[in-house]
Amino acid sequence: QAQLVESGGGLVQPWGSLRLSCAASGFTFSIYAMNWYRQAPGKQHELVARITSGGSTNYTDSVKGRFTISRHNANNTMFLQMNSLKYEDTAVYYCNTRVGYREVWGQGTLVTVSS
């Protein structure tokens, strides 16, 4: 069964950096596009970044130039390098993919940007 597990969240000061990881299992990771979403308190889910099976990437405007999505197919892992973090980046971050007709979500990892 497809499963995603995020890690790497935590408390960071403004302008700091964090690297999130998403470990995938139960499906052929390398052939699927992968996404990072986030949900800030009181707000809807927001697609933050996407990486295709071929490595092409897209970002929401608010994180362009600060966040980098990447994947390591040999280890079935996806990453989100977050630099120059802002207060408004505070959210629970989720990795996501669609396997067939099924959306697969991780449990989320909390990122708190605070001084």
Task: Describe the structure concisely.
The protein has about 120 residues and is mainly beta. The protein has strands at about 5, 10, 20-25, 35-40, 45-50, 55-60, 65-70, 75-80, 90-100, 100-105, 110-115.
3D architecture notes:
- The relative contact order is 0.32.
- The termini are far apart.
- This protein has 115 residues and is mainly beta.
- Strands 2, 4, 5, 6, 9, 10 and 11 form a seven-stranded mixed sheet that branches.
- The mean pLDDT is 97.
- The protein has no helices and eleven strands.
- Helices cover 0% and strands 53% of the residues.
- The chain has strands at 3-7, 10-12, 18-25, 34-39, 46-51, 57-59, 67-72, 77-82, 91-99, 102-105, 109-113.
- Element-by-element helix/strand order: EEEEEEEEEEE
Q: How much of the polypeptide forms β-strand, as a percent range?
A: over 45%
Specify the biggest β-sheet.
7 strands, mixed
Are there runs of 5+ residues with pLDDT below 50, and where? none
Question: Helical segment tally?
Answer: 0
Helical content stands at under 10%
Mean pLDDT across all amino acids: 97
Radius of gyration: 13 Å
**Which structural class matches the secondary elements?**
mainly beta
Overall form? globular
